[in-house]
Amino acid sequence: MSRCAVVLLVLLAVQGSRSIIWPCEDSSDCKAENAHCSIYGYCQCPAGYVFSTDVTRCLPESAYGVACQEAVQCSHMLTGAKCEAGVCTCDSDYTYVRGRCRKLVDLGQPCSDDIDCFFSHNRESVVCHRGSCECADGFYRRSSNVCRRRVTNGEECLVHQDCDGDNLRCVNQRCTDAAAQTAKSLQDVAIQTSQSLEKPHVEGSPAKAPPAPKTRDAETNTDTAAATKRVQISTKRAAKECERCRKFGDPCVEEGVECPEVPYTVCRMGQCHCREGYYHKEGRCMAELGEYVHDGQYCEPGTQFSNRRCTCRNDQFYDNNMRTCLKSALGINTSCTQQSQCSPYGAAYCPSVSPKRCTCHPYARYDEATELCVAKDGYEAYCERDGDCALANARCSTEKTCVCKPSYYYVNERCKAANGGECETAADCAFEEAVCQSPSVQSEDESVEPAEPKRCSCGKGHYYQASGNRCLKEAEQYGDECSVDEQCQPLLGELGQCIEGQCQCDENEHHFKDGKCNMKIALDARCSKTSECFVDGDDQDNVECRNSACQCKFDYSPDVERQKCIRPSGKNSSDRPSALKVITLLLTSAAVLITGSALRDAYYG
What we know:
Blueprint: H1 3-14, E1 19-23, E2 36-37, E3 42-44, E4 49-51, E5 58-60, E6 81-84, E7 87-90, E8 95-97, E9 100-102, E10 126-129, E11 132-135, E12 139-143, E13 146-149, E14 168-171, E15 174-177, H2 178-198, H3 224-240, E16 265-268, E17 271-274, E18 278-281, E19 284-287, E20 304-306, E21 309-311, E22 316-318, E23 325-327, E24 348-349, E25 359-360, E26 364-367, E27 372-375, E28 394-396, E29 402-404, E30 408-411, E31 414-417, E32 434-437, E33 455-458, E34 462-465, E35 470-473, H4 489-492, E36 497-499, E37 502-504, E38 510-513, E39 516-519, E40 543-546, E41 549-552, E42 557-559, E43 564-566, H5 579-604
Antiparallel strand pairs: 1-3, 2-3, 4-5, 6-7, 8-9, 10-11, 12-13, 14-15, 16-17, 18-19, 20-21, 22-23, 24-25, 26-27, 28-29, 30-31, 32-33, 34-35, 36-37, 38-39, 40-41, 42-43
């Protein structure tokens, strides 16, 4: 096998790594764009770059939330990392922290290190104490999985609950003593009034200009002047550094050891790389939020250096990329871009689709007094599985809330059975006018032992409406009040309808006869029963279904054009045969008898 073939097989076996086993004597042997020959004699990409999938070029490693062309650019974040929609991100059950995607555990769950605990956008807020995740000292547990710092008078806050002290309220994102503030305001008014009386303003004299307000950065909510000063200090320090000092990406030989003169680096594969939790920027390894540093110059502008860590102010939150601070949303139903901005308000989240406003989770309700989304109890409480629901006949929904099981309704703080559901008494049924009895019990005598479990149903003379979960009284006579057709049909048949709130027949297509609504079938049309046959007027008794067709009764003549059965003109008013008809009938009978006698005589003669 040729040397090229061997190299190709090795490349395919280890593609995606920063350095691959591609033997070389000098950089001219490395055909991938921007690759060079390492001190170990194999081709590699510069620090901060990775070979493309086809090993033809070196692509930059993409940080969390940064654009990517191939998944290999996100591979430095290890398990759970992916290039989705052209951006490096983590799977839904992973969180980006300390340079990689990690599965974190909730408060109260087992852990081995602080980094194992879900930190709700503030790394300082949680610790792994005695093998369990819990809120750090100085923090309190606000909701199911959020720890917030306790602050005192004058410090940054977001909700009243942040302020630790009697009479302290969060006003304009500062903990304020409400009583003292009121007294001070009254005192200031009195002083201003007194000064205005003592020194009246002289017309034409220039008024003293108020001090210029501090400018704040719109994205990070920090003082622009402070950020500028920090950048100037960093620049001065950088100017003092020697030009020959080792830099990020320079060669090194002591694997796993920090490169001298380059803080927060590690020698990996013969190159100086940033340690996990630190990232390269302008030749320096900068710290992600929550990581320890010895100097504030290794924290991004807009963050703060506190307790030897890069952090955010108490009224700000970590961006998902763990590099910048985000200002909080102003409360529930106010604009947001990321989940962290809504986390101060209890069980709240920022929707993934517009309009993006902080919203209470389905398992929480908004409490105006605390300005928080407070978890519900019982119905719609938070759950992970059915067993978490304390409410009887409840289950855990896909939205992780406790809801009633199928065929149960939430009524009077209970999940009660719908029609057909099992019950002990009528109080277990979710609708009025319900009875609880065994379907096999025909007698209303409660002493009869049921053969089957009792079930909820409507009482006699009532109809169960599933859409409204209620029992409706069935009609007892034509024209009774109703709200749905089914109330009318036991009385009027399947063609009965509820029209304008009354049980009746649709006179355009049906007619009421023999106590039911029937189809209108005209004379000479096919029929199956007499009640279907219809003629105009009040002569409904004069038509019948005979020989499978609607016909007038005997002694009535059909008028098909007018759809009527007409009494013959020969009939008198008493409905008796006329004298002429009687004579004609007698003569016909006599002729029949004479003819019959003559035929008999001829036959025997």
